[in-house]
Amino acid sequence: MTGASIMLPFRRAVSRSGAAVAAAALLLTGCAGGAAGAGAASATMPDASSSISAPDPIAWNECGPNLDCATVEVPLEYTEPDGAQIPLAVMRHRATDPTQRIGSLFFNPGGPGVAATDTLRNMPATAGAPGTFSPDLLARFDVIAMDPRGVGQSGAVRCLTDEQRAEAAGTGSDPAVPGGKPLPDLLADATAFTDGCAAHQSIEFLASLSTDNVARDMDRIRAALGEDQITYYGISYGTVVGPVYATLFPDRVRQMVLDAPVDTGLWFGDSLEFLNEVAVASERTLNAWFETCRTESAAVCPFGGGDPEAAFDALIVALEAKPLQVAPVEGVTPGGILDGAMALEAARGLAGDRATWPVLTSALLGAQNGDGTLLHFLWTSITVSPFGVPTAMHEVHTAVRCADWQTPTDVAAHTAAATEVVAAAERIGTRAAYSALNCALWPAPNEDRVTAPLTAAGAPPALVVGGRLDPVTPHHWAESMVETLDSAVLLTREGVGHGSYGTVPCVDAAVDATLIDGVLPADGTVCNLEQPGTTAPAAFATGGAGN
């Protein structure tokens, strides 16, 4: 958590075909650092921004087919509205049927750390991916993408140099050790990371990256658009932003849909339990792949010859003992090595989306036969993860969640949580262990963090969409959100996957009806998958010169 990585939660520029299918869906897991629904807002928050003078209208410049771009200045801190200002990147996709236009639809695609402007620009290439808007929505709304402060073109957070990123990516991580390394090494890494964050941008900027400030920024954009109300769709971490906005500005919400939500009581109040529950959710989706592979039999899913769990565990051990050398493939992978930790992380991501189960089977077969190219490519494609993955996205992801989270500074608390998660999730638990250490050492404390429940009292009923087997935001978090919001209904999507809108016609119809007409489904409605997931390989990977 994503994003709730929580989270998309996802890279949208990749076509959903061939090996790229795996990469695109893989990135849905990231939104896991993201989260959702019940967390908090100080009672003084609305007053902190209500006294600011109205912003100037947005000066748009055309920047693509039916797209306009602009930069909007907002206060660094809303308690000092006339103080330092920071620029935010904003993009608008104009309603394709202006005569039927309803208004502006804001969205947040998760992470935290996914750039909304990139997501909107690439949306035509991502039909069938979670969070992709229907033609009906695009016809009736101007879709507004705002890169949140610290994300994308809005001053993306930087914590590591290119050399440090490369070193981190190439450093071995032992999948059998909680956190991947001995604790002293993890603490040293966290110290270098947080020192780098403080060196690359001001402490004041880092402290300002909280979700309540993102919500206030959204309201400045709303005012600059001249809109009295906004319609909102958030997925993964976007479901943190939505309830915060609706709690601060309930009368400015027209309709709201929250897809793949998490319990923001955990997001704002118990980061270690939050991460542990994400790991358990990922473990469940990997187990679902194992169970389906075994049930479909070796004739359909040849990996493991009927015992995929044993084959998987043996492969991870073998790759850790003797990594595969992966040759460069132009446009696919720069090459390198594939070890057990990389294979485990790639499998975690692929197992979290039933659409990529066949690719997971192919990748595992390839690695088993000595060709790690596909599995290595999939590992390098992970840009958002609830756990420590050395990418630029991870730096942004960490900075945003550290601004929101209350993370214990006592290392003993992290050790206790690591012990719990390794016991609860035998394969994924080691990946989650100690992954909040950066926030424990965070150099930019947020002195006015969120504390009151996010009830969105006074806003219209929200539609909350939860997946039964979500690899990042477990279904009971959706139930928690419905209980916490003052008015909400729950729609459940059966099956495996992070995010539901754009993937299941039943969900699509309910979301469109909510956002366009304000007509919500009955509370407790369940949408079944039209086609169950299969583990039949997409293409048999052949052995290579990788042994």
Q: How does this model look, in words?
A:
Helix 21 (505-517) links the parallel strand 11 (488-496) and strand 12. The two termini are 37 Å apart. Strands 1-2-3-5-4-6-7-10-11-12 form a ten-stranded mixed beta sheet, sandwiched between helices. Strands 8-9 form a two-stranded antiparallel sheet. 41% of the residues lie in helices and 13% in strands. It is globular. It is an alpha/beta fold and 547 residues long. The model is unreliable at 1-47 and 540-547 (pLDDT under 50).
Count of separate DSSP helical elements: 21
Mean pLDDT: 87
Oligomeric category:
single chain
Question: Gap between N and C termini, in Å?
Answer: 37 Å
* Percentage of residues assigned to helices: 40-55%
Main beta-sheet strand count, sense and barrel state: 10 strands, mixed
What is the approximate shape?
A: globular
Topology:
Layout: H1 18-26, H2 45-50, E1 61-64, E2 67-75, E3 85-93, E4 103-108, H3 116-122, H4 135-140, E5 141-146, H5 162-170, H6 183-200, H7 203-207, H8 211-225, E6 230-235, H9 238-248, E7 253-259, H10 264-269, H11 271-296, H12 308-321, E8 324-326, E9 336-338, H13 340-351, H14 357-368, H15 373-380, H16 392-404, H17 411-424, H18 429-432, H19 437-440, E10 462-469, H20 475-484, E11 488-496, H21 505-517, E12 525-527
Parallel strand pairs: 4-5, 4-6, 6-7, 7-10, 10-11, 11-12
Antiparallel strand pairs: 1-2, 2-3, 3-5, 8-9
Helix pairs in contact: 1-13, 8-9, 11-13, 11-17, 12-13, 13-14, 13-15
